[in-house]
Amino acid sequence: QARRPCRCGRGLVSRSPGGTCLLPVVLVGAGLCRVRKSLDVPGGMACHAPGNARLWTSVRAEASEGVSNSWGSGTVPSTLSVPMRRTARCFSLPGRKGFLGRRVADTCVAGTYRERPAAATGRRVLRIGACLSPAASDAHRSRRLIKRSNIRTVEAVVVGGGLAGLTFALDVADKLTSGKVLLVTKEKLKESNTVYAQGGISAVWDSLDSIESHMEDTMVAGAYMCNKDAVAVLCEEGPRRVRDLIGHGVKFDKERNAGDGDIEYHLAKEGGHSAPRILHRKDTTGVEIINKLTRKALNHGRIEVLEQHLAIDIVLANREGEPACVGFDVLDNNGEVVRILAPYSCLATGGCGQLYPVTTNPTVATGDGVALALRAGADVSNMEFIQFHPSSLYIDEEESSSSSEERAFLITEALRGAGARLFNSQGERFMETYDRKRMELAPRDVVARAIHHELVTSGSPCVFLDISHEPAEEVRRSFPAIYQRCMSHGIDITREPIPVVPAAHYSCGGVSVDLNGHTSIPSLYACGEVACSGCHGANRLASNSLLEAIVFGHRAAKAVVKSMRRSPINVADMARLDLPPLHQVDEVNTAGIDSVEHTVQRFRTRMTAVMFQYGGIVRTSDGLEEGLMHLDMIEREATLAGIFDRSRVTKESIEFQNLLEVGKLVLFAAKQRKESRGLHYNLDFLESSETWKKDIVLNKRALGMH
Known about the structure:
Elements: E1 12-15, E2 20-23, E3 27-28, E4 31-33, E5 45-48, E6 57-60, E7 79-81, E8 90-92, E9 112-114, E10 146-153, E11 156-159, H1 163-173, E12 181-184, E13 201-202, H2 211-221, H3 228-247, E14 278-279, H4 285-298, E15 303-306, E16 309-319, E17 322-332, E18 337-341, E19 344-347, H5 368-376, E20 380-381, E21 386-393, H6 397-401, H7 414-417, E22 421-423, H8 431-434, H9 444-458, E23 463-466, H10 472-478, H11 480-488, E24 498-507, E25 510-512, E26 524-526, E27 531-532, H12 544-566, H13 593-615, H14 621-640, H15 651-672, E28 697-698, H16 700-703
Parallel strand pairs: 10-18, 11-12, 11-19, 12-15, 19-26, 25-27
Antiparallel strand pairs: 1-5, 2-6, 3-4, 4-8, 7-9, 13-14, 16-17, 17-18, 20-25, 20-28, 21-24, 22-23, 23-24
């Protein structure tokens, strides 16, 4: 697929007896080619472009004799000149950087197409960042999205309202004597991945347990890809941070014989753990934690919460001779863009489960933080390691089509820890075949692949998780939420097995950070699932996610407070920095917004199918390359459909752009890793290799981004 000099079309040329010339209408960079009139060309040539032909304009033409070539076999002419009696006009449109795309300004000469030279290195350039076309017409000119009065300054800002974001905000705010911490969430404050955490939080609590044992379990689950220093911090500081939660009013389940003043908590055991060490609140631990921390944040005099504000870009400015983060541009629910300036900024946006068709993540998990950081120039690590939880509730196709549920319902690993067993459609307890020693308590990557193999070989839509052999009253008492949800689907888990399938659950990779949450961009921190701290390696140990969120959220806050005291910054001076131009849309086209949102959903459905087929539980090298090609095609078609039209910037279009960028990162990183390890399982490289026992770090330079 050659790039012509006008950069406005891609295609193949071959001889066609029908004499029809199909000219592609393709947006590459920011050049939009529109065929304005029919072209009359003598001869017998057809020009067509690969992909979805419905997006291209056909024009009648007569081609000259003898004009043909073999582009399909890889031979590309440097020049293709066609005598035209009428002209095709090519419009060169200015682009914008950041979310609004790369700056491109090209022209073309009608009838002449030249090959655009490939990069000298010959490596694949990952195309990230679609451009947004200008507004449609003067008739839709109404108001600006940016107003100077929409600039705010605060002492610190954190994007994300889960456990990591709340911990950061509370710990920084507690040390402030003036000013505020601004906590930004794109939905209501209580909507985050943390809310849906069922199992609990792991910590060494029992005298028979040890820090060394917890560290070893974490390293084994992570396929020895974990950062040992990060794991040590996680396991050693974990018990103190759990006590902080208890101090905030979080109530974990106690042993039935424990009194009110006793601290003898009930400790559950989950897959990959060698000892019981999971503190929990029934099977709704996340709800308990978020309720208590949210109430504390809303009542804190030094914390302000901005709900329904979506971060669209990291703001960079020159500080001490290098680009540094000075805040975020955010889009509110009224379509206004607000610039928030702060000496210290933190990403705590969660994961990217919405990349896949079946996920336990809520709709807010669209990879926003990783996409923001990548576009700003930060390092991103190990995005190939996407964890699929082995057990989400399976709902058949007929029931699913009538259901309003937007996420897969998680069946906590604690159920297996309490004795639940896995059976295939033939009634066989199959985990013995895959991990004879640990059985159902093997790490998640092992169990998820085992279930996937059973589904593929049997053709069954699900496997079954059975806890009906345990005392019914104990099951109902320990897992009330699961019991009630299953009963709503006609499944009594005390009497019959639960149909389950794997679902995308957690991203072990993310924005690269050190032990204090620093990213590669000065003054930008990250914590929680959006960050890659090194704790999880190639696969996360069960219930270590909440622990990482609170441990590294606290450490990031501690680093910010220390920096505040060492080098105080006058917040009022932030607005006087040499800042990049405000995002500004001169024309706002409100027509067709509903249509755009519907179209975005269609493209997202295609994207999630591509991600599961080529970047799911089991992968191949050719499949990863094909998946990247499909995502490129989806991005081009979405651009033509006006999804990224900057005159109609919507939450849906921004989230879709973020998902596309993160999806490409996942497939690109997976393509680089020439082994199978943890959550990355490649049929072309079945063994682990010491050579690849290393992080795959990507950034704009490595990806060929501008």
